[in-house]
Write a structure and sequence with these properties.
The complex is a heterodimer of chains A (369) and B (554).
Chain A (H helix, E strand, L loop, with lengths): L4 E10 L2 E11 L4 E5 L6 H9 L6 E6 L2 E2 L5 H4 L1 E4 L11 H11 L4 H14 L15 H13 L5 E5 L7 H18 L2 E6 L2 H7 L2 E6 L2 E6 L1 H6 L4 H6 L4 E10 L2 E5 L5 E4 L11 E6 L4 E4 L5 E10 L3 E8 L4 E7 L11 E6 L5 E4 L17
Parallel strand pairs in A: 3-8, 3-9, 6-7, 7-8
Antiparallel strand pairs in A: 1-2, 1-4, 4-5, 9-10, 11-12, 11-14, 12-13, 14-20, 15-19, 16-17, 16-19, 17-18
Helix pairs in contact in A: 3-5, 5-6
Chain B lengths: L10 H29 L10 H8 L1 H34 L5 H13 L2 H12 L4 H10 L8 H26 L3 H9 L4 H30 L2 H6 L6 H10 L6 H28 L17 H29 L1 E4 L3 E6 L2 H9 L3 H30 L3 H10 L1 H4 L2 H11 L11 H25 L3 H9 L4 H29 L5 H4 L7 H10 L3 H26 L7
Antiparallel strand pairs in B: 1-2
Helix pairs in contact in B: 1-12, 1-15, 1-16, 1-18, 2-3, 2-12, 3-7, 3-9, 3-13, 4-7, 4-13, 5-7, 5-13, 7-9, 8-9, 9-12, 11-12, 12-18, 13-24, 14-24, 15-16, 15-19, 15-21, 19-21, 20-21, 21-24, 23-24
The chains are: A alpha+beta (369), B mainly alpha (554).
Bound molecules: adenosine-5'-triphosphate and magnesium ion.
Adenosine-5'-triphosphate (ATP) binds next to α1 of chain A.
Chain lengths: 369, 554
């Protein structure tokens, strides 16, 4: 029942400015697919091309192998949830939700029962006769969602649907959206610039920058094995430090500052001997070492957060890095103290200094002690 | 929506063309004829400047332009001098009965100025009540308030409410923390008023004074009634056009053309000012009214009450005199009666009253339909043609009523558009003249509706037409109605073009008031005028009740 969306080489121009130039993505039936990227990278533009509010200047968008480029919006049968909800203020909750249904030639009883069902799914049965201005942000969000999915659209599109909510409600609503999406099983394209939200909600994510897809993958893949430096920095926190590749017979080592060297197993052959590389180290991929071996630095700030402790460490070359240590491991290290940092090279990512592409080979010895 | 561009011949393009044709026929064509006639010799059909130069050659003519300017500058200045302090006091000091005062101010604003003129004649005219009282008791020989001072008195009291309404709105958006910041820096009350409040509302003061300027300079009824020898441009235009002997179309057209140039320049200045000085203010913490005490309290109340009393006095006088017994409708004989009402309701043709409502309703329907469409097209379907529509739709702001009346007669007296003398032409002149109120407030409300609302409807499968009818129009209604109420009230009190276009069959209430006053039949005039005032007040109260608002969009 769910449909696939194939975006093939699409081009978007505003006047003579090309915003998207030959972009392709394949979205699988029933998945919650997220477009993630910084502000202005073209996420909204792409989403509006899918539904038809934006024209398409090149390429094709296919829904279940049927090109939809020239099908009018009202015939595309797609539901959309807007950033500002776009609830009709002059209609109550029920009329808002029923608006799209009344357009289809359905029985009264069919309409009623569909509305009743969806009210249950999004859990706003109690408010069905209220006017929108008497609803909280989260409730309005649920109305918008119900209104979009009650017409049984082929595709559900959401453009930053949570950005108008406060932090706590955002988390509650993103869980609700995820549950409802799974329950309904509808192919969904979700737009956000919040990487944490994307990780939490998506089946797969496409990271975009400047109108170009950087990487498509499951949340865990993107986080653990970003394919370039941009993705690595955009998703999660990354400390980027320089190192030198050292090849000794078959083994490869990364040489950091202060003479600290560590073996790395899953690096590509493209990393030639003596080449400088960029190493992206997540805060918990550092080990605060007790011996003298490691990258030297001074603790500038510590932040005890219960589960763990964050340290902001200034390295000797002036770089500042963030380090996370599980709270139960040790005493909190006082500010001003000199420490050494070791790197878990089986988890870090290494990038070419020139083109910033990943130099990690997947599938090679991942497990190292 | 980008899709609109592809299918060139959709409903919206069709409507744009219809409106464009409508404007071409009822605005561009008549105005073009005015310009043409002002520069083409009626006899020879050749191009000539004689009509225009005639105006500037004879003092008898050009002095009217000077008179218009003098009257207008002084009235505008006085309106600000009264409207500004009242607006400030009403926001700052707790004035008893402020709600009623606000409504009284709006009522005095919406009544036609010439009714004020005729009421003041009854009070301060040659044989006015107050004049007679002082002349008799003090043995004075006061000649009554006519000419320059009479016009200024009437127009000032009629115009300060506009200043008040605008400034009051601006003060509502002024954040009181600015005021408090200045206070904490050691500024006194008076200093703050001049150093903080005034500079922040300067744009509003300028914008509203220019509106007053335009209204006053184009007003015909007041100088006609109370001006006596003091003639202004609209009076000159009317008399030139209407005079049976020298009724010279060419010269009347030239006067119209000159007048349009004057108002056009004023309009452009206003646009420039509005664009140049505008702070976007939104008050997090609006000014609060505080109870004041002692002398300050008494003075504040005294000033507000006295001014509002003066402003509303003409209405009271008119209502009062409408119930007085008269001899032949002219001389008050003391005692009360309903004779005047009996006279106008049963003795005369009732159609005057019915005409006003019928033609007014037709005009307001046209205004609302076109107002909504024009506002929507110019905001949401912006292109070269709709921008032109936008500009043309504001022309009526700069065309004085008497000029529009004459232009209509020029345009619609001959076949194939021989509509002069019909109710249709009256309705069209009302619609054209009073449409800008509705267009402006409709445009403003569309600006507040997010485009994604429409996109939501379309994504749910609604067509563009259905989206417009079911979603946009209902959401626009509050804004449309706020403008439409002003359009309606000003339609039924329209005088300056009706007086040129009316015939016996299309006579309206305002025209009747005017003609009865001219005949000296004050009893009937008062009764007509009371009906008009009551209609306005009831319309306004119904509007307040329906919308839950306390303001109109002027
Ligand atoms: N109607 C338009 N005309 C011209 N340029 C536009 C238009 N809409 C968007 N753009 C440009 O296209 C680019 C992408 O915009 P888009 O709205 O898709 O970004 P986004 O990724 O959704 O950003 P955000 O996270 O801020 O919503 C931006 O550079 C923007 O300036
Ligand atoms: Mg966006």
């Amino acid at each position: 029942m769910s449909v696939a969306i194939n975006i093939e080489d699409v081009v978007k121009r505003y006047g003579d400015q090309t915003v998207i130039n030959g972009l392709s993505i394949d979205i699988k039936p029933g998945e919650l697919f997220t477009l993630l990227g910084p502000s202005g990278c073209g996420k909204t533009t792409l989403l509006r091309m899918i539904i038809g509010f934006n024209s398409i200047e090149g390429g094709a968008i296919k829904i279940d192998d049927k090109v939809v480029n020239n099908i009018p919006i009202s015939k595309r049968n797609m539901g959309m949830v807007f950033q500002n909800y776009a609830i009709f203020p002059h209609m109550n909750v029920k009329d808002n939700i029923g608006f799209g249904l009344k357009n289809k030639k359905l029985d009264k009883s069919e309409i009623e029962s569909r509305i009743a069902d969806i009210l249950k799914v999004v859990q706003i049965e109690d408010f069905k006769n209220r006017m929108p201005d008497k609803l909280s942000g989260g409730q309005q969000q649920r109305v918008a969602l119900a209104r979009a999915i009650v017409i049984h659209p082929k595709v559900l599109l959401m453009d930053e649907p949570l950005s108008n909510l406060d932090a706590k409600l955002r988390i509650e609503m993103r869980n609700a959206i995820k549950n409802i999406q799974q329950q309904v099983g509808i192919t969904t394209v979700y737009v956000t610039h919040d990487q944490e939200e994307a990780l939490a909600i998506s089946d797969r994510i496409a990271v975009m920058n400047k109108g170009i897809i950087q990487q498509v993958g499951k949340p865990k893949e993107l986080y653990e094995r970003p394919s370039n430096l941009f993705v690595s920095k955009f998703i999660g926190t990354s400390n980027v430090i320089k190192a030198k590749v050292e090849r000794k017979s078959d083994d490869v080592y990364l040489q950091f500052s202060d003479g600290y060297t560590e073996q790395i197993r899953n690096i590509s052959d493209r990393a030639t001997n003596n080449a400088t590389v960029l190493v992206s180290v997540r805060p918990h991929e550092f080990i605060i070492s007790t011996d003298q071996d490691g990258i030297k630095g001074i603790v500038q700030n510590n932040m005890f957060l219960g589960v763990n402790t964050h340290y902001f460490v200034e390295l000797e070359d002036g770089n500042k890095v963030e380090v996370i240590q599980d709270a139960e491991v040790a005493e909190i290290i006082p500010e001003g103290q000199s420490i050494s940092l070791k790197v878990k090279t089986n988890r870090v990512n290494v990038f070419d200094v020139e083109n910033e592409e990943s130099l990690i080979e997947e599938g090679v010895a991942n497990e190292v002690g | 929506m980008k899709l609109g561009k592809k299918n060139k011949f959709n409903t919206w393009n069709g409507l744009t063309i219809i409106i464009l044709v409508f404007f071409a026929v009822f605005i561009i064509f008549p105005l073009f004829l005015v310009l043409k006639k002002s520069m083409i010799d009626t006899q020879t059909g050749e191009f000539t400047f004689t009509y225009i130069s005639k105006f500037f050659e004879r003092k008898f003519y050009w002095v009217t332009l000077m008179n218009s300017f003098k009257v207008t500058v002084v009235s505008t200045f006085l309106s600000v001098a009264i409207g500004l302090p009242i607006a400030y006091l009403m926001r700052r000091v707790k004035v008893k009965g402020s709600k009623i005062i606000e409504i009284l101010i709006i009522i005095s604003y919406i009544s036609p100025p010439f009714i004020g003129a005729y009421a003041w004649i009854q009070l301060l005219g040659r044989s006015g009540v107050i004049t007679s009282f002082f002349n008799n008791t003090l043995g004075l020989e006061f000649e009554g308030i006519y000419g320059f001072s009479g016009i200024v008195l009437v127009l000032t009291l009629q115009s300060f409410p506009l200043i008040y309404i605008y400034i009051s709105g601006a003060l509502k958006n002024l954040d009181n923390s600015l005021n408090e910041a200045a206070e904490s820096l050691g500024y006194s009350n008076i200093q703050r008023f001049f150093k903080i409040i005034i500079p922040l509302i300067i744009p509003t003061i300028l914008a509203s004074s220019l509106l007053v300027f335009m209204r006053v300079i184009a007003d015909f009824g007041t100088p006609m009634l109370i001006g006596e020898g003091y003639r202004t441009i609209p009076v000159l235009i009317y008399t030139q056009f209407m005079s049976e002997v020298g009724g010279d179309d060419g010269f009347a057209a030239a006067l119209c053309a000159i007048f349009i140039v004057v108002t056009l320049v004023l309009f452009l200045i206003q646009r420039m000012v509005a664009r140049h000085y505008s702070y976007s203010m939104s008050a997090l913490k609006p000014m609060i009214t505080e109870k004041s005490t002692g002398m300050k309290n008494i003075l504040s109340h005294g000033f507000v009450y006295l001014t509002v009393l003066l402003a509303i006095l003409p209405q009271l006088v008119v209502i009062f005199t409408s119930f007085l017994k008269t001899e032949g409708g002219q001389v008050y004989t003391g005692g009360f009666s309903f004779d005047n009402y009996k006279n106008i309701l049963f003795g005369k043709n009732l159609s005057v009253i019915l005409n006003t409502y019928k033609m007014g309703l037709m005009a307001i329907i046209i205004i609302i339909v076109f107002g909504i469409l024009i506002a929507y097209l110019t905001v949401r379907k912006r292109n070269v043609i709709t921008s032109i529509l936008d500009t043309i739709s504001m022309f009526p702001f700069i065309i004085p009523g008497s000029v529009l009346g004459i232009a209509f007669l020029f345009a619609f007296s001959d076949k194939p558009l021989a509509w002069s003398g019909t109710a249709f032409i009256m309705v069209m002149s009302f619609a054209i003249r009073r449409m800008p109120y509705t267009i402006r407030s409709s445009t403003a409300i569309i600006g507040q509706i997010s485009p994604s609302i429409e996109e939501a409807a379309i994504s749910l499968g609604a067509s563009e037409t259905k989206t417009f009818v079911k979603v946009m129009v209902p959401m626009m209604m509050p804004g449309v109605m706020a403008g439409a109420i002003m359009s309606w009230i000003t339609v039924i009190s329209e005088l300056s073009s009706s007086i040129i276009l009316y015939t016996n069959n299309t006579q309206t209430l305002t025209v009747s008031v005017y003609t009865e006053v001219i005949r000296g039949n004050y009893g009937n005039a008062s009764a007509y005028s009371t009906i008009l005032t009551l209609t306005s007040i009831i319309s306004l109260l119904v509007f307040f009740k329906l919308t839950g608002k306390k303001e109109v969009s002027v």
